[in-house]
Write a structure and sequence with these properties.
Layout lengths: L1 H19 L22 E6 L6 H8 L3 H7 L15 E6 L12 H8 L23 E4 L6 H8 L4 H7 L15 E5 L32 E4 L6 H8 L4 H7 L15 E5 L36 H4 L55 E4 L6 H8 L4 H7 L15 E5 L9 H10 L19 E6 L6 H8 L3 H7 L15 E6 L1
Helix pairs in contact: 2-3
Length: about 500
């Protein structure tokens, strides 16, 4: 009886296997979904996709790499947009033993050559999708291989060539699969590395990354923790742009600098020593901490000018590097003496910004809430235009007025008391605060104001108008000193929100 049961079970299993077999996938195990026609032919286990599945979730659940899943099932496409719920997808190749030997039947060959992304019919398998159809030489990827390492094994093509022949590995080599064949030669590719018989060229150490300039005469072996910028800085005889030109394989952002490989740090025209101090007249050498990027100078007023290696978009700002943030004349609140002797009087207080008129006789320390207009209104003895002329570093829009810095508010001939004539002129444009209201007031409040609001942190003209039920037109009318864009609304000052 036991023998009969066992026999029936075996016969049932055989019948089920036959019932579920699909053309081209003999002895494959799957569930009930349809199999896309371009699925690999040596698949031995299928999975029916369920609602909510993604390529990533299926790969994770079955313990295979995402790229392997896409290689087994090209119909899902590189972005997984071709995944169809209910279809049966391959999750195992050749019972987990690696790719099966290629089929040699004429029908299989015919199908292979008709697929635009398949390799030449004479090439080995498996290959990753998209391999060039012109490939004449292949290499089987081993554990631990990298794209750059493969390029360096041959020295007959560049890293860019390798990526173009094998697009499935990705532009950063993140999808190079062990056990798969990659293309390492097409018609016209040299069969042997170039010799070093060219004029001026001398054999260099190895290994080196591909594409290294043929005229290199000085080499450096990359150590753990190195960056392109600090290699450049350690020599000081060439620029970062030179380094990238001589070593194109490292990439334009140093993303492919490999530890243990030699890079070029000098060609015949490269100086053998750092620039001497005779160059300081046009490009002074900083004496600050290190490491620093190349090109730090001390004669301009913008960060990117002082540190040109960071580039105009700041894309080359490196972690743990020092950068220049001050040159002679740059303001600093910690300064105990004037930073620029020629732009302020020897008896003037500090700190001051550079460029203060040398004939200044009176100074004022900027406080919270100040603007050029506010300072002018406080004293009433000079105009905003005069203030900006005496203190040019604040700029014409007063955007560079610094808290706790001293500014010139008088020169010989400046009135010593508030001028009534000046007040009258100013009032037509910016009325003085009403004497009866709370203080301090935003300059320009109308004289018939009878309701005030104290500006708090986070306020804007709009929020005040909404909270106080005031129209924008009335707010501007009652507070004539506030700009239309509300950029000079000061925290801690009163504004007018009602009139009599």
């Amino acid at each position: 009886m036991h023998f009969v049961s066992t026999l029936l079970l075996c016969l049932g299993a055989t019948a089920l296997a036959k019932a579920t077999a699909v053309p081209g996938h003999q002895n494959a195990r799957r569930q009930s979904g349809p199999v896309p026609p371009d699925t690999i032919k040596d698949c031995t286990y299928f999975y029916d996709s369920q609602p909510g599945d993604t390529c990533e979730s299926i790969s994770d659940n079955w313990g295979i790499a995402l790229l392997q899943f896409k290689t087994y099932n090209p119909s899902v496409k590189s972005d997984c947009s071709g995944l169809v719920i209910g279809n049966a997808y391959c999750v195992e190749e050749n019972y987990g033993n690696g790719p099966a030997p290629p089929e040699t039947t004429s029908s299989t060959t015919s199908k292979t050559t008709s697929t635009s992304i398949s390799p030449a019919p004479t090439g080995p398998t498996p290959v990753q999708s998209g391999i060039t159809t012109q490939c004449t030489q292949y290499y089987k990827v081993q554990d631990g291989d990298t794209c750059a390492g493969i390029v360096d094994k041959y020295h007959t093509f560049t890293l860019q060539n390798f990526y173009s022949w094998n697009p499935a590995v990705g532009s950063s080599c993140g999808s190079l699969l062990s056990g798969y064949y990659v293309c390492v030669g097409i018609p016209g590719t040299p069969t042997a590395p170039p010799t070093t018989t060219s004029a001026g060229a001398t054999p260099g150490p190895s290994p080196t990354q591909s594409g290294l300039v043929s005229t290199c005469k000085t080499f450096y072996k990359v150590k753990d923790g190195d960056q392109c910028g600090n290699i450049v800085s350690s020599y000081g005889t060439f620029s970062l742009a030179d380094f990238y030109t001589w070593n194109p394989a490292v990439g334009t952002n140093c993303g492919s600098l490999f530890v243990g490989y030699y890079v070029c740090v000098g060609i015949p025209s490269t100086p053998t020593n750092r620039a001497s101090t005779t160059r300081t007249s046009t490009s002074p050498t900083p004496t600050g901490p290190s490491p620093t990027q190349t090109g730090i100078i001390s004669s301009f007023a913008q960060f990117e000018t002082w540190n040109p290696a960071v580039k105009s978009d700041c894309s080359q700002l490196f972690l743990d590097y020092y950068y220049c943030i001050a040159i002679p004349g740059t303001p600093t609140t910690r300064s105990t003496t004037s930073t620029t002797k020629t732009t302020s009087t020897s008896s003037g207080p500090t700190p001051t910004q550079s460029g203060i008129i040398s004939s200044c006789t009176k100074y004022y320390k900027a406080v919270s809430g100040d603007s050029c207009q506010v300072i002018s209104d406080k004293f009433g003895t000079f105009t905003v235009a005069q203030f900006e002329t005496w203190n040019p570093a604040v700029k014409s829009d007063c955007s560079q007025l610094y808290l706790d810095y001293y500014y010139c508010i008088a020169i010989p001939g400046t009135p010593t008391t508030h001028s009534t004539t000046s007040t009258t002129k100013t009032t037509s444009k910016t009325p003085t605060p009403t004497p009866n209201g709370p203080q301090p007031q935003q300059p320009g409040i109308v004289s018939n104001c009878n309701k005030y609001y104290l500006v708090k942190s986070g306020d804007s003209c709009y929020t005040i108008e909404q909270a106080q039920a005031v129209t924008a037109a009335n707010f501007q009318k009652w507070n004539t000193g506030i700009k239309a864009d509300c950029s000079n609304l000061f925290v801690g000052y009163y504004v007018c929100t009602g009139v009599s």
